[in-house]
Specification:
The chain has 14 helices and ten strands. It has 336 residues and is α/β, with parallel strands linked by helices. It folds into two domains: 174 residues, 3-Layer(aba) Sandwich (Rossmann fold); 136 residues, N-(1-d-carboxylethyl)-l-norvaline Dehydrogenase, domain 2. The strands form two sheets. An eight-stranded mixed β-sheet has the order 3-2-1-4-5-8-9-10, with helices on both faces. It starts with a strand and ends in a 14-residue tail after the last helix.
């Protein structure tokens, strides 16, 4: 028997997720803030102009119509407005609804992960919140190209319920109990992708990009370890998988922002000219503060922060990274 699944808002990623959800035999409702969008809603999204959604997907004119009575509600807004969406949906949710965050970001003021933001705003649903994250470009998921992803929840029964709802022959969903690690990996890889883009924008070569990716996952894992994550998570789809994809493909908004910065634009100019949401920009600020507060060294994140927020020239940031004190690649542990 199929489930009732709502996806709000129906941006590019939310719209793409409607494809595997519908192919799993479920009834899917979409809602978007754009006035009058339900006219031709089945054509998908402006960033997916070729997409024709399955017949079991319905476009709703109101948010209440979309989420009322649903078994699963997938929350897909930008991190800056996630709290707003939680407040808007709260009066309309079933008491036993499963909530899934697909937003990859951190709260820059409170240094909270996205599921923690949801739990603060919707405390009555605290035990039924999961996060979906992985190397997933919306266009490829919508086109039904083979994709792997991870759904995380401390309660594996919740993760397995979401896995069952979204998994298809083209969208393979793994479960993970490490919610902290999966969310941190999904958010922090955007900062490293900006660094990789800056390096390529400066013309520093393939070796530099490979080093940034490798050392990027190392510093992400250091913060994760300090916050209680499972180190193995960072070697998986939500960690290395998503990091490599985001740092190497021009489809990545964060890499594209880094390219522009490396070529002389500011981050704000890039956002203004393209109109894109670049989560790594705000995440750099949140991660820099978080790392300092727990005493974790994150040099790539620190220098991306200084380039974006303190005006450090990108080439100077790269020079400073290369000329840091010599150190070990792998932290030495005391012998037992």
């Amino acid at each position: 028997m199929g489930l009732n699944i709502a996806i709000v808002p129906a941006g590019a990623w939310g719209t793409a997720l409607a494809v595997p959800a519908a192919e799993g035999g479920h009834a899917v409702r979409l809602w978007r803030r754009t006035p009058g969008w339900t006219v031709g809603w089945d054509r998908g999204h402006r960033m997916l102009p070729w997409l024709r959604l399955p017949q079991s997907v319905v476009g709703c004119e109101s948010l209440a119509e979309a989420v009322t009575g649903e078994d699963i509600v997938i929350l897909a807004p930008a991190s800056a407005v996630l709290r707003d969406y939680c407040r808007w949906v709260r009066p309309h949710l079933r008491s036993d609804v499963l909530l899934v965050s697909v937003t990859k970001g951190l709260d820059p003021e409170r240094r909270l992960r996205m599921t923690e933001v949801i739990a603060e705003e919707l405390p009555e649903h605290r035990g039924r919140i999961a996060a979906l994250s992985g190397p997933n470009f919306a266009s490829e998921v919508a086109a039904r190209l083979p994709t792997g992803t991870v759904v995380a929840s401390p309660d594996l029964a919740v993760a397995e319920a979401v896995q069952g709802a979204l998994m298809t022959s083209r969208f393979r969903v793994y479960t993970n109990a490490d919610l902290v690690g999966v969310e941190l990996a999904g958010a922090l890889k955007n900062v490293v992708a900006i660094a990789a883009g800056i390096s390529d924008g400066l013309g520093l070569g393939d070796n530099a990009r490979a080093a940034l990716i490798t050392r990027g996952i190392a510093e992400i894992a250091r913060l994760g370890d300090a916050l209680g994550a499972n180190p193995l998570t960072f070697a998986g789809l939500a960690g290395v998988g998503d990091l490599v994809l985001t740092c190497t493909s021009d489809t990545s908004r964060n890499r594209r922002a880094g390219l522009a910065i490396g070529r002389g634009q500011s981050a704000s100019q890039f956002v203004q000219e393209t109109g894109l949401t670049v989560e790594g920009i705000t995440t750099a600020r949140a991660a820099q503060r978080w790392a300092r507060s727990v005493g974790v060294e994150m040099p790539i994140t620190e220098h991306v922060y200084q380039v974006i927020y303190e005006g450090m020239p990108p080439l100077e940031a790269m020079d400073r990274l290369m000329n840091r004190e010599p150190t070990h690649e792998v932290a030495r542990r005391p012998k037992l």
